[in-house]
Amino acid sequence: MSRGSIFDGIKVADFTWAAAGPIITKQLADNGATVIKIESTRHPDSVRLGGPFKDGVRGINRSGFFADFNSSKLGIAIDMNHARAAEVVLPLVKWADVVADSFRPRVMDKWGFGYRRLSEVNPSVIMVSSSLYGDTGPWSTHPGFGAQGQAIAGFHGLTGWPDRPPAVPKGAYTDSVSPRFGMTALAAALIHRERTGQGQHIELAQVDTGVMFLSAEIVKLQAGGGETVRAGNADPRALLHAVLPCQGEDRWIAVEVWTHEQWHACMDMLASRGKPSAVLADPAAARHAPEAVERAVGELTAHWDAFELMGALRRAGVPAGACLRGGDLLADPVLRERGHFWPLAHPEMGTLDYNGPAYRFEHTPSHLTRAAPCLGADTDDVLGQVLGFASAKIGELRDCGVLA
């Protein structure tokens, strides 16, 4: 029998911004936690300002990225630089099980809300601080975003083609890597607190998490195998490992061939739409002339629809996947059947499909409860109903500029 979501009852004061931090707190919110996101009109979450914007119309509440990173959360507006901000922040901390931030180190301390102060207010609170370079070390105070983090973590040196400059992985890649480690650390800290009653501070560096993803390359270097170099889509262990053109504008398919049986099955399938080049007659060519082989195979795949070819190759036992674009993903029957997308109604953007969790709990199902909050939309409700502030107190804080 189903029970509540897995983080039901967990209370989170969410000071995170951009992507890495909000993705952590999104997992909590989408799984039952009450997550209160703190921003201000003077310093809103930067992702609100960068789009992509619904219908191409710019607006503080119209960013698609912000929406997807902040589903199921409540939103309040507090000017953290205001001299009286503590009158709201400290009651929030006392209420919370988790406080999350993703500023540069010492920003929370500058405001008077570092871990030492917060633990005095709430000894059992768990604080998760995510930054690019971490709290310690000579780079800890340097500004930067995921694009710099992924370069320093080594990704740029591995992505792209050997005869071209490094290619940037999609977006701020470490912003997507570090939340996986952050959620694991937070879950462990919650278990520890359940056993001991003890809170603690979790410090998370995006660059460190990125380096963890390159463990195999680091081990290879230390074992005398040399530096791993950019290789495009190729894999020297495979007979064919490529992204190949298909019919239509900018349509592609990823194909992997590892065995002679797969090679012959692939070539027989492709030969039904065109005459294979002589270079494809012998799988050994893949070893001594890989570029010629890839060009010759691409001339054959260009006669196929990507989705049709994907199905045909899979039936023949050859791993293949059409390269899907955004519109393909939204219409994908597999994702729809699995219930990956959640339609949520937003006051300004209307109903959009939000990404749900990529995992499925058998007994404690995830549940996206609401669209991302408009800036400060829940301020009065949170202060009145959650923190118990009188309406006169809320009005006073608004009049003096704290709630802005």
Question: Structural class per helix/strand content?
Answer: alpha/beta
Determine the fraction of residues in helical runs and give it as a percent range.
Answer: 25-40%
CATH class of the largest domain: Alpha Beta
Number of domains: 2
Keywords: Transferase
Protein name: Benzylsuccinate CoA-transferase BbsF subunit
GO molecular function: transferase activity
Pfam families: CoA_transf_3
Plain-language structure description:
GO terms for molecular function: transferase activity. This is Benzylsuccinate CoA-transferase BbsF subunit. Keywords: Transferase. By secondary structure, the protein is α/β, with parallel strands linked by helices. The protein has 2 domains: 11-213 and 339-399, Rossmann fold; 240-328, formyl-coa transferase, domain 3 (2-Layer Sandwich). It has helices at 20-29, 64-69, 86-95, 107-111, 115-121, 146-152, 173-196, 206-213, 215-222, 260-270, 285-288, 290-301, 306-315, 326-331, 333-337, 379-386, 391-399, and strands spanning 11-15, 34-39, 74-77, 98-101, 126-131, 201-205, 240-245, 252-257, 320-322, 341-346, 350-355. Strand 10 (341-346) and strand 11 (350-355) form a beta hairpin. Helix 1 crosses helix 7 and helix 7 crosses helix 8 (206-213). It is elongated. The protein starts with 10 loop residues before the first strand and ends in a 5-residue tail after the last helix. The mean pLDDT is 95.
